[in-house]
From TrEMBL:
CDD domains the record matches: PTB_APPL
Alphabetized Pfam families for the sequence: PID
PID domain: residues covered: 37-140
Protein name listed in UniProt: Adaptor protein, phosphotyrosine interacting with PH domain and leucine zipper 2
Organism: Homo sapiens (Human)
InterPro entries, per database record: DP13A/B, PH-like_dom_sf, PTB/PI_dom, PTB_APPL
Region (Disordered): 13-32
């Protein structure tokens, strides 16, 4: 599960507006920060610092919940109630990713997005997770490794043998023990 700061405080100048008591907004976009470079993970740590500072200054405690699915093709943010994708990022467009060094639940990634002008822009996204950020980074790295070895069936088979999977082989195990009573693995 991924939670995001509710962005209702950004809408203060829109006049009277009905607010959702669960902290979710009608806006389907996610908080992002444009960055100038993706050469190091420092841009992610700086964005994390800014998000934490903004949350403290504006007393933002309500969050919008999403589920994060990492596949060998993409990162998908899914609405937990409707199971509809809120955002989809091609894994090949993820240029950097990192977990916060002290707050283990924070994770961020930089996305390279082609613009209509032919240029590219870089945006960083920061999330707070119910899982450790390092586990999410592991899943992203694994997805990127699978992309790299897909052209070599032998290397792909070797990689797949080294991955801890659920009994049905569909999901990567990020936790040693199941975290739900319904038997579903942690898919984050």
């Amino acid at each position: 599960d991924i939670v995001l700061p509710a962005t209702e405080f950004l809408d203060q100048n829109r006049g009277s507006r009905r607010t959702n008591p669960f902290g979710e907004t009608e806006d389907e976009s996610f908080p992002e920060a444009e960055v100038k470079t993706d050469s190091t993970t420092e841009v992610i740590y700086e964005a994390m610092r800014q998000v934490l500072a903004a949350r403290a200054i504006h007393n933002i405690f309500r969050m919008t919940e999403s589920h994060l699915m990492v596949t060998s093709q993409s990162l998908r943010l899914i609405d937990p109630q409707t199971q509809v994708s809120r955002a989809n990022f091609e894994l090949t467009s993820v240029t950097q990713f990192a977990a916060h060094q002290e707050n283990k639940r924070l994770v961020g990634f930089v996305i390279r997005v082609p613009e209509s002008t032919g240029e590219e822009s870089l945006s960083t996204y920061i999330f707070e997770s119910n899982s450790e950020g390092e586990k999410i980074c592991y899943a992203i790295n694994l997805g990127k490794e699978i992309i790299e070895v897909q052209k070599d069936p032998e290397a792909l088979a070797q990689l797949m043998l080294s991955i801890p999977l659920t009994n049905d082989g569909k999901y990567v195990l990020l936790n040693d023990q199941p975290d739900d009573d319904d038997g579903n693995p942690n898919e984050h």
